[in-house]
Structure formats: structure tokens, C-alpha cells
Design goal:
The protein is built from 21 helices and 11 strands. By secondary structure, it is mainly α. The strands form 4 sheets. Strands 3-2-9 form a 3-stranded mixed sheet, with helices on one face.
């Protein structure tokens, strides 16, 4: 849309799959917008370069350091940040950070790579002709983290603080003083918070077949999405370094927090509630699950009675219309949004999607029934078996610990305090008897009656 001076360098932190698929296509791929009425495909040409960090971390660092690079976005899911739940800062025990702190010159994590790029940028700014020195940079988290910009900035500074007096850091970055770099970041780097809202199912062979039918040619990595999209972004960029995002429908705002809360506590929270009920009940997609009247009524009651009243006042009046728009999005069968995909990483997602509503309502004496059901459904989900006995995998960074703990207790309700204590990002929920008892009651009901019969009994309540 007229922004021909801007292009994207995509970076994979783990596997070369996307690079290997898109590089022979010169970065081109099809975006297929799916709805119940029709599917529409258009070719996206903004990706001009593709890098794989494990193959060449230095190439990624140099790309971040290049004067032509003006902003860096991260989409790595919640677990990729390696956050210490107790402090909200960097967890040095997280595998990706432990490795990077030991070998800062060959980082593997997003935080280590970005800090490495900033170090090179700092060196260039310090030694170059001022007129040619790299300008400021914006680093933007597009993940479902509360105050994601502030969190990302904190992680970068914590990482640098741990590199002070580290000989490996000094050797890797030509004697750059970590404290001086941290001050330079404060002056020249921005971490605007953002909220991105679009349902994007995983790419699979069925999507590749559809792309072939729509385009008349092969596409090794098409992307499917719903027609709806929303991107709310704090207007805080370094040296004016951004394209005309508003011309593409991006909302530039002074404070993204209310919009972020609305998305996390309504869309993402409902997705988690649906997924942890749907997988054990045998529903493969969100559309199948929301078509079940009992699940739909429980979701609507969760929004109306618990989530919406707990939202920030700035967006509370917009929330009913937002919820009304979510239901047809969930019912869009053309997306085939798989419940097992949404169920990934529950120990990381539920603390930002469900816990705020549950904790705030419990403190205020407000309803907690269905927020507690979401936690209970997750604990039931950790059994790894459907009500019909079929097994499914648990994909979570703490899967082994959680499943071992669940298996230790024959009585389902006994699992509640143990799981909440182990998954420490759930804060002090264990200390609130009303929360603990409500979750335990739901866990017993789900185990005794089966998921769908129990949800039907809840849906009939007023």
C-alpha cells in the first residue's frame, strides 16, 4: 500500500522449515482468508529475506545491527520469553537463557539475539560518523503477554545486567560495557506494547491443497486466517522509524493496555476454556465445540457474568459488541482451528488469560464459577485421555512435572492444590479457599460425570 521502502526479514529460532519452503518462492506466499461463505487468496510479497538462527546466529545479529533495520517484532509464544514468575524478569534457569548467558556470542534465544544486535548497533553508533550512525530501533512483542513491551524491555535489561563482568560477553562484543549499552538502549530503543488479534490456524497439507486450487500453482507454505484482524499498537517509535501502519488499519494509541486486557480476557480466555473442555470431550475444532449448545452457553455466561465486569473501564462499554463478534469467528468452520493447537502451553497461557479475572473477582466477592471451570478443565485435560479413553499428547514446557503430579493423586480434587502450587505463575490462588474449593468441585464433576454432561449441568444453571 505504497510502503515500498519497507520489507521483512523473517527469522526462525528453531527449525528451517519455513525458510526451506519460502526461499525457493522468493519469500512469496498466499494468505488465504477463510469464512463459511468463501475463501479468498492473495499473494504476500513483503518477505525479502529468511534466516535460521541456529544455523547462523551472527547473521541474525548483523541484520538487527544493520542501519536499514528500524524495528524488530517477536512472535515466539509466551514460553519463549523465559520469564521468572516470582520477579517478572528474566529467568536465568530457563534453558534458552542459561545457554545464552554461558555463550553470549552465539545466542539462541530471541532475547539474546536482539541484545546481541543492539550491542553491534551500539558499537557502530559509537565509532561511525554521526551522520551515518545507526538510528534508534523499536523492538515489539506481538505475543499474548500483559504489558508485553514493558516485559520485553525488562528482559533485555536483566539479560545485560547478568553480562556485566562476564569475560565471554566482553570477548564476543569487542569490549562493549553492558552498563553503557543498557543506558544507550534507554535512550535510543523503544519497546511499545501491542495487541494483535487474528485467528491463524497452523499450516498443513489440506491448506497447501486449497492454495493450489485457488492459485493454480504450488505454495509450500500458505497461511490461513479469518477475515477479521485487529492490531493495536502504542505510538512510541524511535526517530520516527515506522511505515505508515495506520494506512493498513493499525490502531495507533497512547496506551494499549485496555485493548490487550479485552483480547486476553475475552477471546484468548474463551479459547482456553473451550479447548480444555473440547479436547477431552472429543471435539477437534473450535467450530465443532462452540456448536455444542452447552459449551456456547457456558462461554457466554463466562463473558457476561465474570470477564466483562472485570475489564478496565476504558473498554467495558465496547466489550458486549466485541463478544458478539467473537461467536461467529469461533463458529467459522472454514478455519478448522484445532482445539489441540489452542491447548498448547496451558501453564504459560492460563496465568495471563484466566487468572486475572479469577483473582480480581475473588477479591471483590464477584462470580468466579466459570473462570474456575477453565482452571479445572485444564487440570482434567492433563490426564491425557479423552472421556472415550483415547489418548492425546500434552504439549507444555512443564508437561512431565504436571502429568507426574496428576498421576500421583487418585482422587481428582486432591490434584488442585498440588497443581496450583507447582504451576507457580498461578500466584496465590491456592491461598483463597473459595477459589480452591470451586476449582476442586469442578474437577470432581468433570471426572465423575464426563466433560459434556457436566458442562450441560452447568449450562442449565442461571
Amino acid at each position: 500500500r505504497g510502503e515500498r521502502d519497507w520489507a521483512i526479514c523473517g527469522v526462525s529460532l528453531r527449525r528451517p522449515d519455513v525458510r526451506d519452503a519460502l526461499q525457493p518462492q522468493q519469500g512469496l506466499y498466499a494468505l488465504i482468508e477463510r469464512s463459511d461463505r468463501a475463501s479468498d487468496a492473495r499473494v504476500i510479497g513483503s518477505v525479502r529475506e529468511l534466516l535460521v538462527a541456529p544455523e547462523s546466529p551472527q547473521a541474525v545479529i548483523e541484520r538487527i545491527a544493520a542501519p536499514s533495520t528500524r524495528w524488530v517484532t517477536l512472535t515466539i509464544t509466551e514460553k519463549g520469553y523465559g520469564i521468572d514468575a516470582a520477579t517478572g524478569g528474566l529467568d536465568p534457569r530457563a534453558p534458552q537463557h542459561a545457554a545464552d548467558l554461558a555463550r553470549p556470542g552465539a545466542p539462541a534465544s530471541a532475547v539474546g539475539l536482539v541484545v546481541g544486535g543492539l550491542a553491534r548497533r551500539f558499537l557502530a553508533a559509537r565509532t561511525a560518523d554521526p551522520a551515518a550512525a545507526p538510528r534508534g530501533l523499536a523492538v515489539i512483542s506481538c505475543d499474548n503477554l500483559s504489558s508485553n513491551g514493558r516485559v520485553l524491555g525488562t528482559l533485555m535489561r536483566d539479560y545485560l545486567a547478568r553480562q556485566r563482568d562476564n569475560p565471554a560477553w566482553t570477548a564476543a562484543f569487542a569490549g562493549v560495557d553492558a552498563a553503557a549499552l543498557s543506558r544507550w538502549i534507554d535512550a535510543h530503543v523503544r519497546f511499545p506494547s501491542t495487541m494483535v488479534d487474528r485467528i491463524v490456524p497452523a499450516t498443513d497439507d489440506a491448506l497447501r491443497t486449497q492454495a493450489r486450487e485457488l492459485l493454480g500453482c504450488e505454495d509450500a507454505w500458505p497461511v490461513a486466517a479469518e477475515p477479521f484482524s485487529q492490531w493495536v499498537l502504542e505510538d512510541d517509535f524511535a526517530d520516527g522509524g515506522r511505515p505508515g501502519l495506520e494506512r493498513s488499519g493499525v490502531q495507533l494509541v497512547p496506551d494499549v493496555a485496555p485493548y490487550e486486557a479485552m483480547k486476553l480476557r475475552l477471546l484468548n480466555a474463551a479459547h482456553s476454556l473451550i479447548a480444555y473442555l473440547a479436547v477431552p470431550a472429543g471435539f477437534d475444532t473450535v467450530a465443532q465445540a462452540i456448536a455444542e449448545p452447552a459449551i456456547r452457553r457456558v462461554v457466554e455466561r463466562f463473558w457476561r457474568d465474570e470477564a466483562v465486569p472485570a475489564l478496565p473501564a476504558a473498554v467495558r462499554s465496547e466489550a458486549p459488541a466485541y463478544c458478539a463478534a467473537l461467536l461467529p469467528r469461533f463458529a467459522n468452520a472454514a478455519l478448522a482451528h484445532r482445539t489441540t493447537q489452542i491447548a498448547i502451553d496451558g501453564s504459560q497461557k492460563l496465568p495471563v488469560r484466566i487468572v486475572p479475572t479469577l483473582a480480581e473477582n475473588a477479591a471483590a466477592g464477584a462470580p468466579i464459577e466459570l473462570a474456575a471451570l477453565a482452571i479445572a478443565a485444564w487440570i482434567r485435560f492433563l490426564d491425557g485421555r479423552r472421556d472415550d479413553g483415547a489418548r492425546y499428547a500434552i504439549d507444555d514446557p512443564r508437561a512431565a512435572e504436571l502429568q507426574a503430579l496428576v498421576a500421583r493423586f487418585a482422587e481428582p480434587a486432591q490434584r488442585v492444590p498440588a497443581v496450583l502450587a507447582l504451576a507457580h505463575r498461578f500466584g496465590s490462588l491456592n491461598d483463597v479457599a473459595r477459589v480452591r474449593d470451586t476449582v476442586a468441585r469442578h474437577v470432581r464433576g468433570l471426572a465423575a460425570q464426563g466433560v459434556l454432561p457436566y458442562v450441560e449441568s452447568l449450562a442449565s444453571e442461571r
